[in-house]
Structures are given as structure tokens and as C-alpha cells.
Amino acid sequence: MKIKIFVFLLPILLVFNVTNCGTSGSSNTRQTQPLKTIYKDYFLIGNIITPSYLRGEYLDLLTTHYNTVTCENQMKPDALAPAIRGGQYNWAQADNMLNEMAANDILVHGHTLVWHNQTPSWMTEGTAAQVRQNMINHINTVLSHYKGRIFSWDVVNEAVKERINPGENYEDWRNQLRTESGWFKALGADYVELAFRTARAADPDVMLYYNDYNLNNQRKAQVTAAMIEEINNRYKAEGNSRNLIDAIGLQAHYGLTVRIDDVRNTIERFAGLGLKVDISELDVEVRSVGGSSFGTRKDSRLLDTEARQQALVYAQLFNLFKEYKDHITRVTMWGMDDESSWKSMGNPCLFDGDLNPKQAFFAVVDPNRTLRL
Ligand code: XIL
User: Fold this and answer.
1) Which pLDDT belongs to residue 297?
2) Residue 97 in contact with residue 49, Cβ under 8 Å?
3) Above 70 in pLDDT, residue 261?
4) Greatest alpha-carbon span in the chain
5) How many CA atoms lie within 13 A of 351 on its CB side?
6) Are 119 and 157 spatial neighbours (Cβ–Cβ below 8 Å)?
7) What pTM did the predictor assign?
8) Are 105 and 81 in contact (CB under 8 A)?
9) How many Å apart are CA 135 and CA 182, to the nearest integer?
């Protein structure tokens, strides 16, 4: 009954909304259903937070539309762990964010424990035994601090090389890991499994994720799948009934040329391994300025044709994600608006720099309507 009323009302709400577009920031999105309500039978809808997002219109948009968040930087090793060996962990900033989210019934996904970036250098320096112990200590410290408060973590982020050359042996994942990682340099390819085993032992209630980008490239997807499958098979051969790596996060930093069939193939490949497949860092950049989409600028006005093209990509993606709702638990956007986004120059978000909803926002609200227009 409820659904019927909603289906009947939605077109009216949308027409009202589109004609009022561009007036007063986030207030005009309140005339649509919140994204989290629209997708409540499909998956959680997320965005990122930083301390400056926790007030005003930002917080309004966040609490209106989203039911899960990831801290953009504040739970990375260089934010939590001491800058020098033996120092104190820094919990205050992230704890404050976690409390604020708990007060708003927003789930926090943990990002990230083991990564080659944003990690204090001492953690990966010293003998192999020391580095191994550093990793174990870090994972144990963080998971015990957040026990009962954070239920899913990116345990390893971006271990596989950015690009895999054609003609490689894609099963041979050990030779396709990033060699620039301090963890790899000290511990070799075994560091990935060590991280997951340590996390499972530290808190068996946490869903453990491997998170990475460029996974639409089927060569990289194949290498990553081989890695996860081998690690999970070994774990289950020991008599464990569940996977060690529960889920994969597809970062989904896309552009207008993203091929929906590649996304589909990637989702199918990982779902076929019995993993949950989450969209962990979605943004769709439109164009780069001077060759880069990184950087911050407020001028986020897109040409109408560009905004429309971007909306079409978002619409196709969300229709695809809906098809795979049984495998996807969370679709998280990496940025609220085109000003604060890490790829600001690419204008990749659902809201513009003044927090007005873009065509992309309405595409997520109702993908089929956008595709029909
Ligand atoms: C990015 C943040 O958005 C930036 O603020 C920071 O300067 C660099 O990291 N993959 C990830 C995220 O897993 O942690 C990255 O976040 C974006 C790419």
C-alpha cells in the first residue's frame, strides 16, 4: 500500500522539484523523497564526512539523504596512529564524528587499516618481524577501540597494481601487487592475508572488505578475484564456514566514458565468489581542467549538455545497482558537492558547489525518468 502511494506521488514530487531547481540550496531537495528512503529496499546510501561537514546545510543534507558514511580521511592510519613510534593514538576527531553519526542513526563504515598511502612511515620500517608486529598492533588497537560501534572495515586498500598489462598471468596475483607499498616491501605478498586474519581474530563480528579502484578493467578484476579466492579457499579449508574476505569495495571513481557492461561484469565476477559487492567511493567526473580533475574550486557550473550526460551515467549505474541489490549492501558517494570533492575540477557529485541538486541528483532519485527524458 505504502509503495503504491509512493509510486503515484513520485512523478508529482519530481515535476515540482525540477521546476524549482536552482533556488535555495538543499531546501529544494526536501521536496523529493530522501535518497535513503527511495533506496531502502535496495541498499544503504552513503557519503563521506570530514569534521567541517558536521554543521549547517551540509549536516542537513547528510542526515536527510544518507544512512551510512565513511570518514574521508579521519580513520586512515596517519590520522589515528601516532606520527612517531611509541606515541599516542589520536581518537578524538574520529570519535567525535562517530558520536555525531550515532546520534543521527547513520552507520559508519571503517576506512582503512592497511594501505600504502596516508600511513606513518615508522609502521613499515624495520625488520620484517617488527613491521609484522606493527601491523598486528595497529589492527588490534583500532578494532578494539571501535568494537561494537563499527561493523565493517576496509582492511586492505589498493594492494593490487593500478594497471595490469595484457598477457600477464592473471592468476599469479602475488606478482601483481604494488611493489611501492611499504607493507609489500617488508612482508611480501603475504601481508594481505595477514591483515585479514588479524582483523578477523581481533573482532569476528566485523565485515572485512578488500577495497580498490580500476576494477572495471577486467584484467585487474581477474587478478583481484584470484587473490581473494585463494585467501578465502585457504581459510575455508581450515574448517571455517565463512569467507575471510567477506566483501569487496568497488571505489567507482568513474568518468563519462564508463562502460556499464564492465561494471556489470565486475559485480558478477565478485558476487560469483560469494562476496558482497559494495560501491564504496562513487563519483562521476565530467571533465578535467588542465589535465586534472583533482583540486578545489567553487565554479562548478556545468554546461547543460554535460550535466545531462553525467545524469545519464548516474541513472544507468543506479539501475544496474538495483538489479544487483541482493549482492550490494551499500552505495557510498565520495563527496557531497562539486566544491568539496577531492575531484572538484571534474564536478563529479550530485550537488553543485552551492549545494543545489544537479541533474545527477534527480537521476539517482528516478533513473528511469532521466533515461526517458
Ligand atoms: C582521498 C581523499 O578524498 C582526499 O581528501 C585525500 O587527500 C586523499 O585520499 N581512494 C581511497 C580514498 O581509498 O581514501 C581516497 O580519498 C580516494 C581514493
Assistant:
1) 63
2) yes
3) yes
4) 65
5) 26
6) no
7) 0.92
8) no
9) 11
Instruction: Give the orientation angle of helix 218-237 with respect to helix 260-271, to 10 degrees.
Output: 10
Locate 130 and state its grid cell.
617488527
| Helix H or strand E encompassing 112 | strand 107-114
In the set 72, 193, 212, 352, the catalytic residue is 212
Amino acid at 241: S
Q: String of b and e for 216-242 (b: at least 16 CB within 10 Å)?
A: bbebbbbbbbbbbbebbeebeeeeeee
- Domain coordinates of the chain in residue numbers? 33-372
Give the separation between CA 247 and CA 327, rounded to whole angstroms: 10
Closest by Cα among 75, 39, 37, 46 to 249: 46
Quick one: which atom of ligand 1 is closest to the CA of 76? 14
Instruction: Report the amino acid identity of residue 25.
Output: G
| Catalytic residue (one of 281, 283, 285, 366) | 281
Residue tagged 593490487 (cell numbers): 160
Q: Which atom of ligand 1 is nearest to the CA of 48?
A: 3
Residues 6+ apart with CB under 8 A from 164: 170, 176, 217, 219, 220, 222, 223
pLDDT in tens, 267-298: 999 999 999 999 999 999 997 666 667 666 66
3-state secondary structure 6-25: HHHHHHHHHHHHHHCCCCCH
In this structure, whether the domain defined by 33-372 belongs to CATH 3.20.20.80 is answered with yes
261 classed as catalytic: no
Q: Which residues contact 187 (CB under 8 A, 6 or more apart)?
A: 128, 131, 132, 135, 194
Q: What residues does ligand 1 touch, defined as CB less than 6 Å away?
A: 72-73, 157, 251, 281, 342
